[in-house]
Every structure is written in C-alpha cells, then in structure tokens.
Amino acid sequence: MPRLRAWVDRFLGLFQKKNRDAEMDEEIQQHVDLLTERNVAAGMLPHEARNAALREFGGVEQIKEAAREQRVWMWGDEFLQDVRFGARMLLRSPTFSLLAILCLTLGIGTNAAVFSWIEGILIRPYPLVAHQDRMFALIGTTRGAEKGGLSYPDFVDLEKNSTLFESFIIDRITGTTLSVGDRAERATGGLVSANYFDALGVQPIFGRGFRPEEGIGRNAHPVTVISYLTWKDRYKNDPEIVGKTQYMNGVQHTIIGVAPEKFHGTFIGYSFNFWVPTSMQETFDSTGYKMEDRGARWTEGYAFLKPGVSRQQAQAELNSIAQRLENDFPETNRGHGVELIPLWKTPFNGAGNMSQTLGITMAVVFLVLLIACANVSNLLLARSLLRRHEMTMRLALGAGRGRLLRQLVTEGLLLSTVAAAGGIAVAYWCRNALVLAFPPPVPGIVVDYPGQIDWRVLVVSAGICILATLVFALVPAIHASHVDLSGALKTEAGGVVGGSGRSRLRSALVLVQVSLSFVLLAGTGLLLQSLQKMRTSNPGFSTDTIVSVTDLFSAGYNLERAKTFHTQLLDRVRTIPGVESATLNRVIPFSYKVYSSAPLEIDGYQPAPNAQPTSEYNEVAEDYFVTIGIPIVSGREFARTDDENAPPVAIINETMAAKYWPGKNPLGQRLKVKDRWMQIIGIAKNANYRTKLEPPGPFFYVPLRQNFGVQNSLLIRTRLKPGAITNALAREVHALDPNLAPWLANPLQEDIDQMSYSQRLAVTLVSIFGAMALFLAAIGLYAVMSYSVSQGTRELGLRMALGAGAGDLLRLVISRGLRLTTAGIVIGAIAALLLTRLMGNLLYKVSPRDPISYGSALVVLVGVALLACFLPARRATRIDPVRALRT
Amino acid sequence: MAKEKPDLVYGTLDMLILKALQHDPRHGLAIADRIQQMSKDILHVEQGSLYPALYRLEAQGWIKAEWGVSDNNRKARYYELTAAGRKQLSAEKAHWSRITAGINRVLAT
Q: Would you state the pLDDT for residue A763?
C-alpha cells in the first residue's frame, strides 16, 4: 500500500508542481529561520546569524533543484518528453496525422454515439430519476408467457403485501386533444399513480405533484401536471400557470404543477405533455371504468426495489403474492402472474424494439472501429519505414527497445486522444439524431429518443481509445523496434510481387478490412431485403384503404351523441362522389391501440383442464370486410341490420375455425363472449392484426352496432387522393359539429410503416456504418497498393526496360490487389455465414444465407477494390524506366 | 570551512534519517541535530543535503510528513516513520552490520 501511495503522490506531483514547490520553499525558509534564531541565541548579531545559517544550510537553489529531482517521477518526466517529441513528429507530417485522426475519429465517434444512445435510451433512460439500477418494468403474464398489464386492484395488492420494494408506480400512456387558445393539437400523457413524482424523486419546478388521495375516487380529482415543453410552448412560459385550468376530454382540469425541463416522463419513445392521476382513468380511457375490475389489465408501470434486494428475491416475493391472488380470485386471476423486466427490455414502450436495433448497431460500429484501426496501423507501418533512420540512430545511441516502444505507443495515444476528443464531439452532435428516423405520427406529439453523454460514456470512450491505441499502434511499434542495426544500413527495395515482412503485415491488415467490410455489406443486404419484403408483403388486407379518426372522446361526447354522430357521418361519407364503400371500426389494425380480448366458451368444444380459450376481437360496422379488403371465405358479412335489436352474431377467422371446430362447419354454431351467446355467421380469411411478424392466431369480429363505443375510426375505400378525401371529410365533420375536425386522413400503409420504424432505423444505421466501413477499407486498399507501387518502382522499371507493356504492368498491380480482395472476401463470407445467423429474428422472410445479399456484397466490394487498385496501377504504367533504375 | 567535518559514508544518510525518526516525529533541523547528537558530534549532516533525501524517502513511502508547530512556536514540517519505513530501517541495519563486519574482518587480517 505505501508503495502505491508513493506512486500516486509522485503522479500527483506532476500536476501539483507549483503547489509542492511553494511548500518546499516554505519548509526550507523555516529551517533557515530556526538556524538563524539559534545563532542569535548564541550571541550573534541578526544579519550575521542569518548569513551563518545560510552558509550552514548550503546552496539553497541547488538543494531545491536536487530535492525536486527526487520528487518528480522519472517515468513521468520521460512520458512528458515522449509526448512533446511525439507531438512534434505528428505536426511534421500533417497529412498522415490528419488522415489517421480522421479515421480514428470516425471509429471512436460512432462508438461513443451508439453507446450514448444505449445509455440514454436503454440503460439510464430517465435522467432525473435516481437509482435507475433498482428500477424495473412491471409486467403481467398469462400462463408464464404473453405479456400484458396489471389490473388496478392487483396493483394495489402488490403494493400492500410486498416488503422488498421501495415503491410501485403506474404509468399508462394516454392521449387527448389539447386546445389552448385557438390551437388544437394531439398530446400524449401519462395516467399515473398518485405517488408517481415522489417515487421517482422528481420535483415539479412550479406547484406540486399529486397527493395520495388524488389517486382514487372515480373521476374525483381533475388535476394535472404539465410538462416543461407544454408550459413553454403552449402557455408561453406563463409564470402564473399553477391554478389555471385546461379542458381535457371534456373535463376541466386544474394545472397543479409544471415538471422540470429534463423530465420527459417514463415512456421511451415519446416525450409526454401532461400527467393525470389514476382516479381520472375513465376520463382518459374510451373503453370504460376499470379501477375496480380485477380482470381489466390496463396498468403499466415500474417497481423500485429496496437497496440490496436482488431481482430474484423480489421476483420470488411477487410470485408468492400472485399465487395468493390466484387462490383468492380464481375467476379473474387463474394463470396470471407478475414479472420484473429490466428497463432496457420494457415491452410496453420503445425500449423493446430499440434494444435489438441498438445491439446490432453496436456490433457494426465496433467493426467500423476495427477497420479504422487497421487503416491507422497501415499508415503507421508505412511511416515507420520513413522513420527507420531515426529509430536506428536512437538504438545505436543506446536507447532501449522498451523506450522506443514506449515512444511509439505514446504517439499512438496522442493520436487517439485527439481523435477521442473529436469523437465525443461527434457523439454529442449526434446524440439526438435517432429522432430523425421517427417522424411524429400526428402534430403535437413529441418523439423522444435522447442519447446521454455522462461519465460512463466518457469512460467507455476512453476505454475504446486505449483499446484502439493498443490495436493500431502496438503491432507497428513492435515491428519498428526490431530494427536490425546492420541490415538497416543496407538499402531495402521492396518488390510488387514478393513482400518483405512489413508488407506482408500490411497485406494482412487489408485482408482483415476487406473481410470485415464484406460481413457488414452482406448484413446490410440482408436487412435491406428483409425491409423490402416486409414492405411489400401482403398483410391480408388492402393497405390503400383510407383511415381517419375524429376525436369525440376528447371533445367530451357521451355514448348517445357519439352514436348519432358516427351514424350520420357514415351516411354522409358514403354519398361523397368517388367513395366506394365506408365503414367504422373500434381498433385500426397496426395501431398502438389494443384489441378487446375475452375468455371464450364454445359450444361443443371441451378445453383441456387448466386451459382457458381466449381471443382478441374487433368491433366493426357493416361493409368492413369489403372496405378493408379481407375476403369472407364462407357465410356473410355484417349488415346494417345487425344492431342492438337483432340477435348477437360474430365472424371468425380461419385459424379460429380450424382450432375450435376442426373438421366441422362453424357456420351457425355458437360462441359465448362476456356472458353473451353469439351465432357465427361468417368465416374471414386470416390477416395480420398488429405486426407482420406475428404468428397466425385466432381472431374474431363482432358488429359495432351491437357494441357501440365513443371512439371509433372511419375506414374508406376510394379512388380519390388522400388530400381530396381529407377536405371532403373535414366538410362533412364540420357540418355535423362545427367544433370538430378529423385528424389527417391517411392510407393504412402509413400506419403499417409506423410500426416498422425500428426495422427501418436498423437498416438506416447499418447502411450508414456499412458505407463508412467500405470507404475506410477502400482507403486501406488504395494506400497499400500505391505504397507497394512506389516501393516497387525499381522492379517495375526493370520489367518495363525488359519489354513489359503498360497493359502488363496494369494487370500485374491490379491482380495483386484482387488477390488480396478475393482472399478477404472468402474469409469475410465464412465469417458472415457464421455471424448473420445471429440476426435471425430481425430478418423477415429472408434466409441468413440469402444469395442475393451475398452476391451484391461481392459485386460492390470487387468494384470498389478495382477502383482502389486502378489509380496506383495507372501510376505504375507511367514510371520512367530510366529514372527508376538509376535511383 | 565546508569540509572540516568528516563526511558521511556514501549512501548512509537515508538510514541515519530513518534511525533519527525511530521514536518521535521531527522536523528537518531536529533530524540533523539528532544525528549529530546520537553520533556524539562525530557525524555532521550538511543541512541542505537533508532535503533531497527526505523527499526521496517520502516518495518511497518510508516516511510521511505533516505540518506542525515546533517547540518555539514556529510552523515546521514534521516527518514520521511509516510501517514500511520501520521495516526498511531494520533491513538497512542488518545490511549495515553485515557490511561493517565484513570490512572489519578485512581490516583485521
């Protein structure tokens, strides 16, 4: 330990030189003063005493210098010397330094940027929340699988009966149309438990958070905390905002607080505009009051563990509580459990999608870094030849090889430090770039994927920087320090065909670059193909159907008014010229809204013990199947007459028919949903309901007119352009209620695109970084080829003098480049076959060995390699044989 | 007047400083005094040469320093032996007795 302390002291001594000098001055001063006093006491006169003391002490300045030498770290001194010398060397060849720094900046910068995204989106996504390491997402499970939410009564029971948790919070995303002044825009918000702000440790900058009593009481506490952005944007920084009111979903809410600027809520992907307590659930959920319904699993949220509690312990406690709930409430809770999920896997917000995308991106940028390092290594190797004279001289003068090695590594460190600074600047500049890939779905909603540059990102960047230095600087450095003293005196002329050890090393580096580039290109090709397949694959309905929503719920419509409004609107829309058919449905396919789901009872079907058949379903009006383009394979579609006065009916999909009525005709059979028997009148073709990746499952439809709700969306099949239909629609809505306006009418395709943003982001990122890698590898190949041409001038000149033509030389140089490229491609293809298997679940209907992707990677790489070799090769043909041989 | 006193044997100053600090913390001048006193006025330390040695010992972690107040109310930097320093002192003592025994034997023949 003391030894370690001494080292630390010495190291600090480097930086505190001034301070320590002052201390030393004082100490010596005191010593001389003491001596002087003693001399005075012995009877000397004051000035005599002082002179005698100084004589006795010795030469003050020399002693100080000698003392200083003892203190300054020898190694540190040498280090500074190396740094100074290295900086001079780098400045002397600015082109080299700039190129090397640029390559490294790209490498380190992309890594730092991706890591800042991972940090800001997945690891510590909520900057103002302390102890995010103890924060977990809370998920409901059904028979251990299928993720969902929790019911409010279950949530309260968890909170009451657990001992290992600090707190539980609910944060359910909700939305409204926010009208401030004459501006109406969509807004996203959170329906949160009353302890939300306290548990997160987030203090509103004005006003207060919610009080415990505000969490309960049906619609009893219309209070809201608004976000900083809303306060700034919509309320123009009104300092008197607290106590003012705003209408949301027809209810006047009192603004009780403004959240701090950096707090965007706890939902990855969106920056929330407001928060309301759970007591207002009914006001913000168009599907009804659920606070006392143990079967309604609508809450999403998080749990904070107590310090020192492991996730396993906490999970075990949750399991035992869930078990008790299963026993106490078998009707609603049989087979239901609760699970803690790390924040980065949170399934109910953007984290789940982003984690895979960012994981792949991290791997890709790491490859980019390796390629960049190989480039810099190459540059250093080329330069070490130029510096061979210097190295030889230093060795001959007695410098140790270790000292030379240290000098070269120091220079490498200097390069990568500058590059790291640049890289962090790049990362800082790109930290919010991900948002660009996610256009907001409707105006007013703020998409939010912030990167975060904190000390962890800086530490990792520093780590990357050191790692990079070791990778790129060490190989050439070891190589350079093994200069053969006598051999170095002889001239060494390399050839184009044969190779010295040095050029073999450089070729190996290019080989690595080419093969890594091939892996990236093949991977990019696979992702592109997958995206293309996903875009063009048929979801089972026609994606050019126009969808439009008028937000009656936010406007405060009750069920009766909504019913009248929608019936009239549907009639009016059907008369618009150019409209072929129109219908209403509850949930738009591929939207964020969730389908209703219910346990089923089926006539003549005996479920296995402990299994409860359930299925999702959608409420749709007449003409739904015609309008959205899902064929009815047998039976009929819903009619306008299938309303409250008619007997309940349902239409099932093919999977459901095959599952519950195997070998039988389900038409005319009965199905019991929520205590209502309904007759099956039709079978519809299977379609995708939420994503194109979902496996086929049972699904059924019930008539909207038998299950009316306030919030419905309008579907229109038309030949009109979306713009034209939007205007016509706005007129009709306006005619029915002048205060209302429909949201933009758009083809269903746009909603589908929204769901595939994370795949598109993955493709975009991998393409950008893949292009970067290709570019770096091309530079590497070019550098090696042009270097070998310049080294082989003598040989080429000789060949020329012996009668080789320009074409022969061109072929000679290019064929060597292509040999390198081919070898690289072979290695790369093997690596890609092994690595792309890991992308399996990101690929949609594309084999990880897809020949088109591999083929195009091959073509691109060979093309780039030809280009990179052609320039040096052409230079080779212009060599003047006379001059080449004379030198 | 510089060389009227016997010089210290080369390399022994460190050991003498450690020895002088064996029981109590002392400041620079007191260390010089102590060495002189212990040697019964045979050994005189050149005051200035004390400091490079002190800093060297401090950097090795054998002694540590702290500002304090001297007997006559002056600020002074006090040096104190560390555990590692104690070990070093006994190691050097053992080494020294071996060497001197050897030299004595050589001179005795």
A: 83
pLDDT at B9 over 70: no
For A848, other C-beta atoms within 10 Å of its C-beta total 19
DSSP H stretches of helix in A329-443: 330-333, 351-386, 388-396, 401-430
Q: Tell me which amino acid residue B37 is.
A: Q
Q: How many domains does chain B have?
A: 1
Residues A821-830 have pLDDT tens digits of 899 999 999 9
**Does residue A37 sit at the B interface (CB-CB below 8 Å)?**
yes
Residue span of the structural domain in which B77 resides: 13-108
Minimal C-alpha gap between B12 and chain A (Å): 17
- Is there a contact between A37 and B59 if contact means CB atoms under 8 Å apart? no
Nearest to A596 by CA among A624, A619, A613: A619
> What was the pLDDT predicted at B6?
47
| Regions of chain A short of the pLDDT cut 70 | 1-20, 68-78, 144-146, 182-183, 397-400, 441-443, 479-502, 592, 610, 744, 840-841, 886-887
First-residue to last-residue Cα distance in chain B = 36
Which two three-digit tokens encode residue A769? 């970084």
Interface check for A30 against chain B (CB to CB < 8 A): the answer is yes
Alpha-carbon gap: B102 to the closest alpha carbon of chain A (Å): 31
Residue B4 within a domain? no
- A35 closest CB neighbour out of B29, B51, B54: B29
Q: In A, which residues are within 8 Å of B55 by CB distance?
A: 24, 67, 70-71
Nearest residue on chain B to A8, alpha-carbon basis = B59
A656, A604 in Cβ contact below 8 A? no
| Residue A376 one-letter amino acid | V
pTM (predicted TM-score)? 0.71
- Chain B contact residues (CB < 8 Å to A): 1, 27-29, 46-49, 51-56, 58-62, 70, 72, 74-77, 82-84
Q: How far apart are CA A618 and CA A786, in angstroms?
A: 67
The full DSSP string for A220-279 is: ---EEEE-HHHHHHTSTT-TT-TT-EEEETTEEEEEEEE--TT---S-TEEE-SEEEEGG
Residues of A in contact with B61 (CB under 8 A): 2-3, 5-6
The letter for the amino acid at A663 is: G
Q: What sign results for the dihedral spanned by CA atoms A56, A62, A65, A67?
A: negative
DSSP code at position A299: B
Smallest CA–CA distance, residue B76 to chain A, in Å, is: 7
> Closest residue of B to A53, CA-based?
B47
Is the pLDDT confidence value at B71 over 80? Answer: no
- Rounded to whole angstroms, the Cα distance separating A151 from A336 reads 11
Nearest to B82 among A2, A31, A59 (CB): A2
- Residues of chain B found within 8 Å of residue A67, distances taken between Cβ atoms: 51-52, 54-55
Q: Which of B29, B48, B75 sits opposite A59 (nearest CB)?
A: B48
The pLDDT value given to residue A697: 87
CATH number, domain of B21, equals 1.10.10.10
- Give residue B4's pLDDT: 41
User: Does B56 contact A60 at a Cβ distance shorter than 8 Å?
Assistant: no
Phi, psi (deg, nearest 5) at residue A137: -75, 145
Residue B1 lies in a domain: no
- Residues of chain B neighbouring A69 (CB-CB closer than 8 A): 52
Is residue B76 one of the residues assigned to a domain? yes
Question: What is the per-residue pLDDT for A172?
Answer: 92
Is the ipTM higher than 0.95? The answer is: no
- CB A542, CB A629: distance < 8 Å: yes
Q: Please tell me what DSSP assigns to residue A122.
A: I
Interchain contact, B76 vs A59, CB within 8 Å: no
Q: In the prediction, which pLDDT does B3 show?
A: 38
Contacts of A593 (CB under 8 A, 6+ apart): A587
